[in-house]
């Protein structure tokens, strides 16, 4: 009898052990799937793309309706010549030239901006309007009604700023908030390696705090990045108002690492709110 009881116990123990192991395995798979879903979330697609575009638009154009900003153009007096389009491409830095070049590829005929390509090449690195002027402003706004112009702006935006921001954020082990913080910095400071550009700011931050990929704490590292960026922002009168960074700081302190809606923030003294219903009306 004792032997029989022992056999039953062993059998029960074996079954229970299998159940426990199966549960652990399934939970592990579930957790892995959750982590994978979190890791794969990025600001390049879907509602997160809309959120981030709206956030950046609130800073660039005082509006969360970024879909209306593709036609924007003016000289804001920051030494970069004309600032134009959905994220403020500039004639001085050359990304405006890249937009017009891409537009010309997509629409080689009946293109109102084609005639400005030589002038745009000539003014890169300056704040000059030579060869551009008022007619360029009118033609830019006319071209912005074309689907090809919207496509051109988005293509340059993705290639120069958004996709690299996501790549760098993934390399550093950052989530959605980190991607947005990187992207906004890339838009304002450019993707260069000097201390005043995105990669310079990133290197300064890494010198004072480890990234999550290096075993560091994400919040601590992002704080270091914002601190490093604030120093650069204050160097330029056009960017001396730190509303962009204050907004990101508020999301960081609130622990909103996934940019969960609704979002509320203040940009240059103006209050904004973003929810799913407001985003549903915006399109690229």
- Tally of strands: 5
Secondary structure category: mainly alpha
Q: Main sheet: which strands, in order across?
A: 1-2-3
The major sheet is characterized as: 3 strands, antiparallel
Q: Helix segment count?
A: 11
Strand content: 5-15%
* Poorly predicted tracts of residues: 1-39
Radius of gyration using CA atoms only: 25 Å
> What's the pLDDT, averaged over the residues?
89
**SSE pattern, N- to C-terminal:** HHEEEHHHHHHHHEEH
Signal peptide: 1-32
Keywords: Signal
GO cellular component, one term: extracellular region
GO molecular function, one term: chitosanase activity
Set out the fold topology.
Layout: H1 2-40, H2 46-61, E1 73-75, E2 82-84, E3 89-90, H3 95-106, H4 117-122, H5 133-143, H6 147-171, H7 176-189, H8 198-208, H9 218-233, H10 243-253, E4 263-267, E5 270-274, H11 276-279
Antiparallel strand pairs: 1-2, 2-3, 4-5
Helix pairs in contact: 3-6, 6-7, 8-9, 9-10
Question: What can you tell me about this protein's structure?
Answer:
- The protein has 284 residues and is mainly α.
- 58% of the residues lie in helices and 6% in strands.
- A hairpin with a 4-residue loop joins strand 2 (82-84) and strand 3.
- The longest helix is centred in the first third of the chain and has 39 residues, at 2-40.
């Amino acid at each position: 009898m004792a032997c029989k009881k022992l056999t039953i116990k062993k059998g029960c123990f074996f079954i229970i052990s299998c159940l426990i192991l199966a549960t652990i395995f399934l939970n592990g798979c579930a957790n892995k799937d959750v982590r994978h879903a979190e890791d794969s979330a990025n600001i390049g697609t879907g509602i997160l793309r809309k959120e981030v575009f709206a956030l950046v638009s609130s800073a660039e154009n005082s509006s969360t309706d970024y879909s209306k900003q593709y036609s924007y153009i003016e000289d804001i007096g920051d030494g970069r010549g004309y600032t134009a389009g959905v994220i403020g491409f500039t004639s001085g830095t050359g990304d405006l030239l890249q937009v017009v070049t891409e537009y010309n590829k997509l629409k080689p005929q009946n293109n109102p901006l084609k005639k400005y390509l030589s002038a745009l090449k000539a003014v890169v690195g300056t704040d000059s309007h030579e060869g551009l002027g008022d007619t360029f402003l009118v033609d830019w706004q006319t071209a912005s009604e074309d689907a090809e112009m919207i496509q051109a702006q988005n293509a340059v935006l993705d290639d120069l700023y958004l996709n690299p921001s996501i790549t760098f954020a993934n390399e550093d082990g950052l989530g959605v908030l980190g991607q947005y913080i990187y992207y906004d910095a890339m838009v304002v400071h450019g993707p260069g390696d000097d201390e005043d550009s995105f990669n310079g700011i990133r290197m300064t931050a890494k010198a004072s705090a480890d990234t999550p990929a290096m075993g560091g704490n994400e919040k601590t590292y992002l704080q270091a990045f914002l601190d490093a960026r604030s120093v650069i922002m204050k160097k330029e009168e056009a960017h001396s108002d730190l509303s962009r960074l204050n907004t990101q700081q508020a999301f960081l302190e609130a622990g909103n690492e996934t940019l969960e809606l609704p979002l509320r923030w203040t940009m240059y003294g103006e209050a904004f709110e973003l929810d799913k219903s407001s985003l549903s009306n915006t399109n690229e």
